Amino acid sequence: MLVADVNARQVFSLLLVAGALPLAAQAPALPNWLKFSGEIRGRGEWLTGIGYVSGNGDGYYLHRLRLNAAIQPLPWLQMTLQAQDSQAPAVRKPAPASAVNTLDLKQGYVVAGGRASDAWELRAGRQELAFGEDRLIGIGVWGNVGRSFDAVRITLRSSGFRADAFSGAVVTPIPGRFDRPHFNNKIHGVYLSSESWVKRATLQPYWFLKTHSRARDEGGSWGNLRVHTAGVRWVGKLPRRWDYNLETAFQAGHQARDAIRAWAGHWQAGCTPGAGARPLRLLFEYNFASGDRRPGDGRRNTFDQLYPTNHFYFGTADLVGWRNIHHLMSGVEWRLSKTLRLRTDYHSFWLASREDALYNDGGAVVVRNPRASSSHIGQEFDCWLIWRYSERLQLGAGAGRLRPGRFLKESTPGAAFTYPYIQWQYSF
């Protein structure tokens, strides 16, 4: 099976590589029903203070190639294929599946409908799912591999309104083999969006259901997992160049015999004080996600962040997730020109419950210390720059530095973590 998987992937990849590059360069010669495109992205990362240990560092280069083919035999029918090759030369071995995944099928789906004149769209196959700001379900765009789902999605549209319903399973990268979903771990949902329910605002209520056929409770018993997430996102404009972005989500369900009751919220206010070609934007934000105050009592209160894209929201260093957290952020963004954007952010993090753990951006436990004298995790300072050199080439650089607070100093060696990077991306 392994040999067959590798051979099939190699044949598929070689066909795309051999066909996409020359055809993309000769796009005018292609028939209207066939299109090729692609993207190459590279990023150098240097990490110091890994595990909050002084002198523990690493540096490597992440490289990702994506090749796309779009086939449209009928006006209302389209098929999309996307091959992806993700590599990380010089990364510490064994390389994680989130960084390295040799040529594989990232997306492969069929779309019926979806034209501007259509009020509906049906999409089936391996695809990316992203809703709202990707805080609960997103594509993991910063990662070298990213995230896909084997899913069916139905979309209905009318003037100022959109409704999406979907059902599927997340695809797990498997280095050396063809990536497959785990259908015992499923996600279903409905996401609505309206621009007419509230004046000068967009309102997006939603419901997600995450299930797993095998889960363990705090007492050690096995059963299944069912987590219902009901929430609403509300984005709008205010007078005097102010705007707001709000989101609240509540969770209920069970994990084996344990009851689940959790919630999270996001509250952001933004201001653009000046007009003109180089506007300055100010951001002020508070995020919360509940934690478990009484582990072992048969009730789970730790918020489940599902399948998010956290990089843009909880710090460039990617050390904190939307679980058991109080988070304050202030940021300034400058549009230095039409092609140049600079942003600086300040973050401060606290545990919502010291009885619970600190979780990273992927939702995994980093450290647990209920005996710590403080819940303050630390402060992070971020700065990044994006330069759109041309329509095809984009360059970027940035850095994040987290200075541990008392909780981390008492629970780890307590060294600061620093993460600078340089990135380039070319589309063709």
Shape: globular
> How much of the polypeptide forms β-strand, as a percent range?
over 45%
Helical content band: under 10%
CATH topology: Porin
Description of the structure:
This protein has helices spanning 2-25, 406-411; strands at residues 34-48, 57-74, 77-87, 101-113, 120-127, 149-158, 161-172, 180-194, 201-216, 222-238, 242-255, 258-271, 280-289, 299-300, 325-335, 340-351, 358-359, 365-367, 376-388, 393-404, 417-427. The chain has a single domain, classed as Beta Barrel (Porin), CATH 2.40.160. The strands form 2 sheets. The protein has an 18-stranded antiparallel beta barrel. Strand 2 (57-74) and strand 3 form a beta hairpin. With 428 residues, the chain is mainly beta. It is built from 2 helices and 21 strands.
Brief synopsis:
The chain is mainly beta.
SSE map:
Layout: H1 2-25, E1 34-48, E2 57-74, E3 77-87, E4 101-113, E5 120-127, E6 149-158, E7 161-172, E8 180-194, E9 201-216, E10 222-238, E11 242-255, E12 258-271, E13 280-289, E14 299-300, E15 325-335, E16 340-351, E17 358-359, E18 365-367, E19 376-388, E20 393-404, H2 406-411, E21 417-427
Parallel strand pairs: 12-14
Antiparallel strand pairs: 1-2, 1-21, 2-3, 3-4, 4-5, 5-6, 6-7, 7-8, 8-9, 9-10, 10-11, 11-12, 12-13, 13-15, 15-16, 16-19, 17-18, 19-20, 20-21
